[in-house]
Design goal:
Layout lengths: L5 H29 L6 H10 L3 H10 L1 H8 L2 H30 L1 H14 L3 H9 L4 H29 L3 H13 L4 H5 L4 H22 L22
Length: 237
Amino acid sequence: MFRDHPSVIKRRCVSVLLVSALSPAAVKAWIHWADIRVFYLGPLVHSAMDNPNGFTMELQSALDVQSWRLSLGDVVWLRNQVVAPVTEELVFRGAMLPMLVPCAGPTAAIFMAPLFFGVAHFHHIKEQRRLQKDSMRVILLVAGMQFLYTTVFGAFTAFIFMRTGHIVGPVLCHSFCNSQGLPDIGSALQHPQRTALLFLYLMGALLFLVLLFPLTDPFFYGAIPVCSLAPAPAPVC
C-alpha cells in the first residue's frame, strides 16, 4: 500500500516528530498567554487457541536480541509501535489536554480532545482515493468506523493521562493496541470454542471497567493529575 512505502513512512515520521517537538513549546506559550491488557483477555486467549505456540514464540521473540534488531530495522514496525504512539500521545494528550482542561473542565476535555484525534485520521480518505481500490461509499464507511474507534480510544488514553499525570501509560496502551488491532468478535462467534471465548471477551470487558479507576488512582503515580491544572471556576480562554 501507498502508506506502507518506506519513503512515505520516513517522510511522515519526520513530519510528526517535528510537530511533536514543537508541541511542548506551544503549550508553554499558551499557558503563559492564558495565565491495557485486561481488556484484551478474550482476543489473547483466542489467539492462543488458534495458535498454541503463539504465546511461547512471542515470549521468545521478546527476549531475542536479533528479533529486536529486525524490528528496529522495519519502518512499518517503527511507525506503528514507536513513532505513532509517542508522537500522537504527546500531541493529542500531553499537549492538547493541558490546554483544553482550563477552558472546558476535565470531563469535557476528555471527550473533546479525542475528536481532534479522530479527525486527524481522515487523511486516509485521500490515500484510499488515490489507490482507487474501493468505492467512495466504502472508503467513507471505513473512515467513519476508524473515526469512531480512534475517538473512543482517544477518550480512554485521555482519561489515563488525566488520572496519572504521565504520558507513558497512554503511549504503552497505544503501542499495545496498535499491535493487537480491534478484537475480532466475528471470528470468535464462529469459533468451535465460542462459548468460552465469548465469556472471556465479556470478562475482559468487565474487568477493564472494574479495574479502570483503582489501577489509575493518582496515589500510585506520585504526580499531580492534569485536571488540577484547571482553575475553578472561571475559564481562562
